[in-house]
Amino acid sequence: MRHAVASLARILALGVTITGAGMASAQTADTAGITVYNAQHASLTKAWAEGFTKETGIKVTMRQGSDTELANQLVQEGAASPADVFVTENSPAMVLVDKAGLFATLPQDVLAQVPEGFRPKDGHWMGVAARSTVFVYDKRKLKEADLPKSMLDLADPKWKGHWAASPSGADFQAIVGALLQLKGETVTVDWLKAMKANSTAYRGNSVAMKAVNAGEVDGAVIYHYYYFGDQAKTAENSANVGLHYFRNSDPGAFLSTSGAGVLASSKHKKEAEAFVKWMSGKQGQAVLRDGDSFEYAIGNGAESNAKLEPIAKLQAPKVEPSTLDSKKVSDLMTAAGLL
C-alpha cells in the first residue's frame, strides 16, 4: 500500500494524471498543459509523459481507453473534444480519426523523425512505436518443421482446433487489415472463414498465449511483446512457449504502427506538437529501448530493446498504415462470425 501511494505521489508530482475514457480529470489542462487520449498501454505512455514533463515542465493529463473506444469518442466529440493528442496501439484508429478531418498537420521537423513507412503521406499523424505479428507455439507439441510457413497456412484443415487468436481486439483486426491490403478481399474472406472453422477465440493476446503455455492449443497469432514482457517477469505464462516469425514479407510478418497525432481543435497545439516530437525523438525512443514495454523503437537511428529480433530481420511486408480499413475489416469479420 505504501509503495502504491508513493508511486501515485510521484506521478502527480510530475503532472501526469490518468483517468478512464470519458471521465472528467481531476487536473484540467491549462495553457502549460495538454490532455492526451491514450489507447496505448498506460505504463508506456505514462513513462513518455513523465519524461516529457520532467524535461519541459508541461503537464500531461491522460484519459485511458482502447483504440476503438477513444477513436469513436473523438469522432463523436468533434471540434468540442478536450483532447490535444491522440495516441494509439494500432494505426486503424488513427485512420478513423483522420478520415473525420480531426487531425492537424504535424510540422515537418516532427514528421522527419521517423521513416516514411511509419507515417501517412498527409502528415496528419505519425508512428511512435511498432509491434510485430508472431506465432507463439507449444514447444512440447510442435517442432520447427511443424510450424506454418505462412499465416495463410492456418486455413488448412489440419490446423483445425490447433490454433488461437483474440479476434475481438484492435490488435488482431489490424493484422486482418494488413492481410486485406496485401492479398485483397477474396483471400481475406476465405481466410477468415477458415479461421472461424479452425481457431479458438480468446479475449486478449496474453490470454491466448497463456492458453498455449497451458497446452489448451498448439499455437496462437499475437503480437511479439506479450511474450517478451512475460519472459522478463516470471515467465509463468510463457515457459513452454516458443516464438515463430513468418518473415518473407508474409502477411503474418506484419509490423503494426502505433500512432500519435495532434487534434486540430487543440487549444495547446505547440505543447501538443512538443509531446509528439518528444515521443518520436531521441528521449522518447530511448524509453522503448530501456523500458519494459518491449515495443519497437522506430525513430531514425533509434535502437530497440536488445532482446528483440531486429526489425530488418523480421522481413515485414510493406503496408501503408494510413489505408488500413477498420470498418471493412469489422464488416468482413462480422460476416465470418468472428465478431
From TrEMBL:
Gene3D superfamilies: Periplasmic binding protein-like II (3.40.190.10)
CDD domains attached to this UniProt entry: PBP2_Fbp (cd13543)
Keyword Lipoprotein: no
Endpoints of the signal sequence: 1-26
Keyword annotations: Ion transport, Iron, Iron transport, Metal-binding, Signal, Transport
Keyword Electron transport in annotation: no
Gene Ontology CC: outer membrane-bounded periplasmic space
Binding site for Fe cation: 41, 89, 225-226
A GO term, aspect molecular function: metal ion binding
PROSITE patterns associated with the record: SBP_BACTERIAL_1
Family: Belongs to the bacterial solute-binding protein 1 family.
The name this protein goes by in its record: Iron ABC transporter substrate-binding protein
The species this protein was found in: Bosea caraganae
